[in-house]
Amino acid sequence: MSNTRDQWKSKIGFILAAAGSAIGLGAVWKLPYVAGTSGGGAFFIIFLAFTLILGTSLLLAEFVIGRKTQKSPIQAYKELAPGTPWYWVGILGIISSCLILSFYAVVGGWILTYFVRSLTGGMTNPPTGDYGMLFGSIISNHWEVGIAHLAFIIITILVVQGGIQKGIERASSIMMPALFVIFIILVIRSLTLDGAMQGVRFFLQPDFSKVGGDTILFALGQAFFSLSLGVSIMVTYSSYLDKKESLVRSASSIVGLSILIAFLSGLAIFPGVFAFGLEPNEGPSLIFTVLPAVFSEMAFGGVFLSLFLLLLLFATLTSAFSLLEIVVSSAARNQPERRKAAAWIGGLGIFVLGIPSNLSYGVLSEWFVFGNTFFDNIDFLVSNILLPLGALLISFFVPLKMKHQDLKEELLRGSGLGEGFFRSWMIMIRYITPIAILFAFLDVLGVW
To answer: Which NCBIfam families match (predicted)?
Structure first.
């Protein structure tokens, strides 16, 4: 029986894979529509501050846990806090990842369907001229979205079963550079549209009159969501990282790439929305109803729509890889011969778990719990309860259960930084980060 643990082939491979996990629907889909309803540039500034300060501190906390133990989350927490129930943080992360991927793959299926339709001309000038109606007809067609849902999961399984180097790192090393190239093309095209500067001003010029308590909480949640924090994904990814690599430099690169993508996303989307007189506050349907209408009005719009959907598909897949990897890593337990079976059993199990979400806009569209569809309930449970709970527990775990010297050595190794940086980080992770998460968490629960 082999017990050789896989590792990232290179530092850049790790950074691209971890950034790919972070750069998913949160950056390309969620951030633009939340910014559109929350003051544009004001929201982005608040999001930027939370990402740089709170997000980075929590990202480093997960890195320290993973790299120190070089084990999957459950085993990592058991090693660091033996004989205690802290390993449930790892279990919570696995449960959360399964639930996220269960509905995330549904949206991935929608994107895959749109992409295929864009290549075959099925997205230009719908018969009714109404892209909202087209979106509704697609997601209510349970056969079409069901096949696309399964196809998305199978692609994810095929990559993850290949392991860290030959699977996730290889795929991320192709998809992430391609994602950046496509983004640059789209930004250039968007900025050359007549009236584009109005969209740029909306995105970059802050309107603090629209900032309220909800805006700040949305920005905090977006900062954590956009870095894949709170579900121990980064514990898993960093467990494959060589001991000689600097955690601080890696975290800085990942945070920087995440912010850059969020910035490019706004520059790609808002100029086009404003150029054609559409509203930026369309909500979650922005990329499925508003943007196809925008692209349809452009010269070579079909080509740019296909490029945008390919970008979105890459971003969604790289996040899906990390969500399935935490499950596979825990099941395979450092035994490579178990990885393939773990990937297929875990992936197909998550597919079955996602079927009710897939049918939430079809045959189960009238089946409501707490006034929401199954899809919306799973999204709320994960995004508003499990993610902040996991982030809160990790922020408690690191200063309480890990040895001070171990934290210092692991954090500063190879960084060239000194005691001052470590003390600042400890203040952030011990006091400021958990208080901020707690405020957001209690607000979601309606405590005040």
So the answer is: Na_transp
Q: Is 447 exposed, middle or buried (0-12, 13-18, 19+ CB in 10 A)?
A: exposed
Mean pLDDT of 41-50: 84
Say if residues 184 and 264 touch (Cβ distance below 8 Å). Answer: yes
Q: Give domain 11-444's CATH number out of 3.20.20.70, 2.40.50.870, 3.40.50.300, 1.20.1740.10.
A: 1.20.1740.10
Interatomic CA distance for residues 179 and 308, integer angstroms: 9
Dist. CA 307–CA 166, nearest whole Å = 26
Please count the other Cβ atoms lying within 10 Å of the Cβ belonging to residue 120. Answer: 8
Secondary structure class of 373 (helix, strand, coil) = coil
71-126 residue pLDDT tens = 989 999 999 999 999 999 999 999 999 999 998 899 899 989 988 888 887 666 66
d(CA 248, CA 415) in angstroms, rounded, equals 6
* Cα distances (angstroms) measured from residue 164 to each of 51, 170, 263, 321, 361: 27, 8, 29, 10, 35
Q: Is 223 left (phi over 0), alpha (psi -120 to 50) or beta?
A: alpha
Domain ranges of the chain: 11-444
φ and ψ of 197, to 5 deg = -65, -25
Number of residues that this document lists for the chain: 448
